[in-house]
Amino acid sequence: MAERRILAATSSHVASLSNFKEPGRYAYRASKSALNQMWRNLSIEWKHWGCTCLLFELDLHDKALAGDQSIEIPAGAVQSFIETAKSEHSGKYWTWRGKEILW
Predict the structure, then answer these.
(1) How does residue 93 score in pLDDT terms, banded at 50, 70 and 90?
(2) What is the dihedral sign for C-alpha 4, 38, 46, 85?
(3) Going by DSSP bridges, is the β-strand pair 93-95/5-11 parallel, antiparallel, or unpaired?
(4) 9: domain range?
(5) How much is the pLDDT for 66?
(6) How many domains does the chain have?
């Protein structure tokens, strides 16, 4: 069995340049935007090593979780996604439900 090389990070909707809706939080937004850019770059640079770089939006203020702020729901979904990830998932931005988010 081949060794899988998967790197995963979590970001936030506030980093989105195309989905800007809330002003403020400049340092936090900038750090998340930098993480997103770095992860995209690593997905290209490390591809020849067989690395899959996954980036997830994990916003626990998601209205879908209203009434149930348990981290277990998104963490379990992210874990399942990671376990079944393929190279074509690398360098893209995903919701914790596995839906691609446009940059």
Answers:
(1) very high
(2) positive
(3) unpaired
(4) 5-101
(5) 52
(6) 1
CATH of the domain at 89: 3.40.50.720
DSSP-derived secondary structure letter, 12: -
Per cent of the chain over pLDDT 90 is: 46
Closest residue by Cα to residue 10 from 65, 75, 64, 72 = 75
CA angle, 66 as apex, 18 and 36 as ends, to 5°?
30
Using CA atoms in the order 92, 28, 59, 77, what is the torsion angle rounded to 10 degrees? 40
| Interacting residues of 71 by C-beta distance below 8 A, sequence separation 6+ | 60
Please tell me the predicted confidence (pLDDT) of residue 72: 67
Query: 101 burial class (0-12, 13-18, 19+ CB within 10 angstroms)?
Result: middle
Give exposure, 65-92, as e/b (b: 16+ Cβ within 10 Å).
eeeeeeeebbeebbeebbeebeeebbbb
